[in-house]
Design goal:
single chain; alpha/beta; six-stranded antiparallel sheet; 39% helix; 21% strand; globular
């Protein structure tokens, strides 16, 4: 069985939902994970913001506008009055539930409940449409099997056992429709998976049922070898190793979240990135197979801050790096890149929430220099140290661009460069010209 995930754009209108229905009705049994319709989650966040601010009138105004949009989608989606009425009743019930939060105290718990409604609406609508078309599809509520533990991590055993129980109750269904992103936490409260959202749901389901393949359907033809927003002549990468995909996702490729493919990787389940707008395009296949001697792609991560700690006392000082890392850990601020020398260490972060406190603490151990407005450029491929010449090809692209830091050797798949944001577009284009366009 395959697991197919469709993002918000893929189910963003009645016409898009009909296209998704065509794609999934191919005679094969499958589980389909759906996001909320595009724009819905942002609107639910806005509603929550008004409720936090104790402005129920503004919240109700936005709720009414969003509800009317869904009524129009329903009118366009269904052919029969019977199913139009079923959908109207279901959607109206959900919006009445959202309105109930305008009358009481609103906290983070209530916000998570409100945010979950987008996925509940989209899956209900698509499942009813499939039923109207005569498809034997069944809605399986994610809130009945998707759960996180006390550390906020997926409870893999719970997910596997409860999903199997639900699927066994309807073994002859052609299609199982379920919600992405939403779950319950260890205390039974409605929560969400945060990182990777619906992609993470699809990967966890795929791992739970040992799927033949996990398909992530978006509005992009796979993962490109560079960012098409800044660079000319980019092309989709047809195959990536899981490690390569994770590096690209972490360092800026928005099509995929770096953590969401981990369950698939651990269970050796291939992940395919496909385009709902071009369903016949091959997309990108991600697996545990490496294409040898090949540089695959480039990605960029914005809003990076560089911090350099210089200390004469560091020379042969036992425990210096531990003390530095403990400061970042105490403020729950992860480090992206690190380089060291005899007298100093440079690191990069992408979260400036506790920057001033971090700098104050670091000053106890040396002179601290901070550079904001930086970008990490990541080059990904088969970059094991004994592959002679690949490093020089990459470095040649930076011959006219000032580089603040270089990180190489931490992974067999990645070389990273820290540069000024002003040089980003020039660097990305130069890398494409040197690595891809001249081949």
């Amino acid at each position: 069985m395959k697991v197919l995930k469709f993002g918000g754009t893929s189910v963003g209108s009645a016409s898009r939902m009909k296209e998704v229905a065509k794609l999934i009705c191919d005679g094969e049994q499958k589980i389909v994970v759906l996001s909320a319709m595009s724009g819905t989650t942002n609107t639910l966040v806005e509603i929550s913001d008004y409720l936090y601010k104790k402005n129920p009138d503004a919240a109700n105004e936005i709720i009414n506008v969003l509800e009317q949009k869904y009524f129009l989608h329903i009118e366009e989606l269904y052919n029969t009055e019977e199913y139009k009425q079923k959908a109207l009743d279901a959607v109206r019930s959900i919006f009445d539930y959202i309105r109930s939060f305008t009358k009481d105290l609103f906290t983070l718990f209530e916000e998570k409940v409100v945010l979950a409604q987008g996925e509940l609406i989209s899956t209900t609508m698509v499942n009813l449409y499939l039923n109207e078309q005569g498809v034997n599809s069944i809605l399986i509520p994610a809130l009945e099997y998707m759960r996180t533990d006390k550390n906020g991590e997926p409870d893999v055993l719970y997910i596997k056992q409860h999903l199997k129980k639900i699927l066994d109750q309807a073994p002859n269904a052609d299609i199982y429709i379920t919600q992405g992103y939403i779950c319950r936490n260890a205390y039974g409260e409605i929560d969400n998976l945060q990182r990777g959202g619906s992609d993470y749901t699809a990967s966890l389901i795929g791992a739970a049922i040992l799927a033949d393949e996990i398909q992530i359907w978006t509005d992009i033809d796979g993962m490109h070898n560079n960012d098409p927003r800044y660079v000319d002549k980019t092309t989709p990468v047809r195959h990536l190793h899981f490690e390569e995909a994770a590096e690209l996702a972490y360092f800026g490729a928005k099509i995929l979240h770096p953590t969401c493919i981990l369950p698939a990787k651990l269970n050796n389940i291939p992940v395919r990135l496909l385009n709902t707008m071009e369903p016949d395009a091959p997309g990108t296949l991600i697996s545990n197979t490496t294409e040898k001697n090949k540089i695959k792609a480039v990605a960029a991560k914005d809003n990076i801050i560089s911090i350099k700690i210089k200390s004469g006392r560091m020379l042969l000082a036992h425990g210096f790096l531990r003390k530095v890392f403990e400061i970042f850990e105490s403020y729950q601020t992860p480090i992206d890149m690190i380089t060291t020398s005899e007298v100093g260490v440079s690191v990069t972060i992408d979260n400036k929430k506790h920057l001033s406190e971090i700098v104050d603490d670091l000053k106890k151990y040396g002179t601290v220099t901070v550079d904001e407005g930086m970008v990490i450029i990541c080059v990904v491929g088969d970059l094991t140290w004994n592959n002679i010449g690949y490093e020089s090809q990459v470095l040649a692209a930076f011959k006219e661009i000032p580089v603040r830091m270089i990180s190489y050797g931490g992974s067999n798949y990645n070389i990273s460069f820290l540069i000024k944001a002003d040089d980003k577009k020039r660097a990305l284009q130069s890398l494409s010209d040197n690595l891809f366009n001249n081949q």
